[in-house]
Amino acid sequence: MPAEGGVDSCIARVVSHAPFDVEPLVRFGLKYAGVLQRTPIDRIEQAAREEVADLVARTSAALTALGADVVSTAAGREATEALAASEEVFPQATLAALAARVRARGEPGAGVAEVLETFVAKHVAFEERLGWMLEGTPREVASSLDAHRETDRIHHSVSSAFRFESRVLEMMAINRIAQSSTIGTFFRSTREAEANPIFRFYDTYALYANVWEWGLDSLRGRRAVARMNEIHGRYYIPNDEMKYVLVQGVFTWLDGAERIAHRSLTKSERVAMFLGWARMGRAMNIADLTDDYEREYAWYEDVGRANAGHTPQKRDTYETIVKASAEGQPPELVDALLLASRAAMDDSYLVSVGYDRPAREDVDAVRAVFYTVGSFIEKLPYTPFLRSLQNNPARQKATKPDELGVQGRSSFMPLARADQENGGFPQWQVPLRTVADAEPMSLPEISWDEVRRHNTRESLWTVIDDVVYDLTAMVRVHPGGEAMLLAVAGKDATARFKAAPHRPGTITFSLNYRIGRVVDREPTSGE
Fold first, then answer.
1. What is the pLDDT of residues 350-407, one digit of tens each?
2. What residues pair up with 463 in beta bridges, in sequence order?
3. What is the DSSP string of 304-373?
4. Disulfide-capable partner of 345 in 118, 332, 349, 439 (CB 3.0 to 4.6 Å)?
5. For the chain, what is the radius of gyration of the CA atoms?
6. What domains does the chain contain, in order, with CATH numbers?
7. DSSP 78-123
């Protein structure tokens, strides 16, 4: 029906139509999913040499640990000499034959045989691992593997087959901290997502890749775990919140894949993906984390539902992190990524950040793009693509695990003692089940006169149970708004803090803002 005195309704329909543009997503996939890239063989060779040298060194150390009496036996001397011949060649055949001889003849040195058998098995396993990293694992082979025994191999196969979708699924998963006000508020106070958005994303997944590609027991895997523990150990972090960040990382990915990926994952693939994350999580000292897929998935869903309530802060946190990580990208690409991520989100995620599910035709268009490109990728001949060694937008050369991630405590976080390492806060801390498990720290004495001087949003201190907290980093991100903090700036906030409905995780996170202890009584308004 024609519009009276305006634009004809037929013309309006044409003008208002916004067709789905597949080009940004396709270009993104080809450029950032590694479809057109491969890892240089010389990088893989160098990493393999380092792993072999590590096996030689660990075998020698294990023999030495047996004691002089055992090492001085004929078997001990022979093994030591074989290992000393070259640090870049693991004498697998020689050591295997020596161990077999000791066992068969009952020669002295049973401990030597046990050590040799252990490390020969590790060398055999490493050679097999290099095989599937270099040659890939066909889908029909992967489907026949046991998820518990071949976890990393299946994980690598899935990561290769789903390279295109992974960039959206990973972006969605790494930014899910926004759904939890507790985690999101603490994280935004550090400003790591805003100050280092590109490095945060790519370094995080490079650290993960070192674990899953080379193995938890490898040199690179051990160093990656140590690096993650060093980074997290600079802060007091609640165990349940850290567990949620970890398990949602895999379950958000898996559930999102069911919504937008080019194919469904098999049960074995889903279980192997989960097991890779769970085993890494336990190496990161996360407690109460099991290999039981169903149990942990139910826990993840319970936490998601408990945090499904929407607040403006959650949406602001989500969009701030996403936009920071996409800085410099064309607007149409950012819009396409956001649409794809919304199509992949589960209901509690969508509701918490205040989004409606995209229109059916948009979801279908997203799925069509991923089906077309993803199916094409999975049919291509495999070429080695090891994320742990690959260039990325944040790193233009191969990087060792201990070089990844931030180098110190956030400069935006309070310092209890500026002259001490980590600002006077404990280091190498493990996730905390309760506040009582927190490592103690020495708090300097601060007078009330000094506290009262810090009463602005640029420098905001408050006191709770005689402990001084520097909440300057919290002003712009506090769920209650800056007015709530300004009301207690330079004052005692004990009553207000205890009356507020804080979750246990908030209490634990609050330990990161302590800077001292008051040593005199609070002045009254007449003083």
1. 999 999 999 999 999 999 989 988 898 888 888 898 999 998 878 888 789 999 999 9
2. 468, 492
3. HHHT----HHHHHHHHHHHHHHTTTS-HHHHHHHHHHHHHH--HHHHHHHT-PPPPHHHHHHHHHHHHHH
4. 349
5. 27
6. 23-32+143-398 (no CATH), 41-135 (no CATH), 421-518 (3.10.120.10)
7. HHHHHHHT-TT---HHHHHHHHHHHHHHT-S-HHHHHHHHHHHHHH
Tokens of 253: 């990915």
- How many CA within 13 A on the CB side of residue 432? 24
CA diameter of the chain? 104
**Residues 174, 250, 34: CA angle, nearest 5 degrees:** 70
Chain centroid to Cα 423, Å, comes to 24
**Per-residue model confidence as pLDDT tens digits over 483-504:** 999 999 999 999 999 888 888 8
Measure the CA–CA gap between 492 and 79, rounded to whole angstroms.
68
Q: Which residues pair with 464 in a beta bridge?
A: 467
Residues 6+ apart with CB under 8 A from 460: 454, 470, 471, 472, 474, 475, 485, 486, 489, 490
Burial tier of 407 (Cβ tally within 10 Å: 0-12, 13-18, 19+): exposed
Distance of alpha carbon 150 from alpha carbon 405, whole angstroms: 28
Measured CA to CA, the distance from residue 428 to residue 450 in angstroms comes to 31
Task: Please return the burial class of 430, using the count of CB atoms within 10 Å of its CB with bins 0-12, 13-18 and 19+.
Answer: middle
CA distance 275 to 266: 14
Question: At CA 85, angle to CA 82 and CA 87, rounded to 5?
Answer: 105
**pTM, full prediction:** 0.90
**DSSP secondary structure letters along 120-173:** HHHHHHHHHHHHHHHH---HHHHTTS-TTTSHHHHHHHHHHHTHHHHHHHHHHH
CA distances 513 to 96, 469, 474, Å, are: 56, 5, 9
* CA 431 to the chain's CA centroid: 15
The length of the chain in residues reads: 527
Of all residues in the chain, what percent are helix, strand and coil, respectively (each to 5)? 60, 5, 35
Q: How far is CA 523 from the centre of its chain?
A: 46
Buried b (16+ CB within 10 A) or exposed e, 368-381: ebbeebbeebbeee
Return the exposure string of 433-450: e unless at least 16 CB atoms fall within 10 Å of the residue's CB, then b: eeeeeeeebebeebebee
Angle among Cα 276, 52, 33 to the nearest 5 degrees reads: 45
Distance of alpha carbon 382 from alpha carbon 134, whole angstroms: 9
Amino acid at 298: A
Render pLDDT for 307-365 as a digit per residue (tens, 0 to 9). Answer: 999 999 899 889 888 887 777 777 777 888 889 999 999 999 999 999 999 999 999 99
Strand 514-518's sheet: what is its strand order? 445-446, 514-518, 467-470, 459-464, 455-456
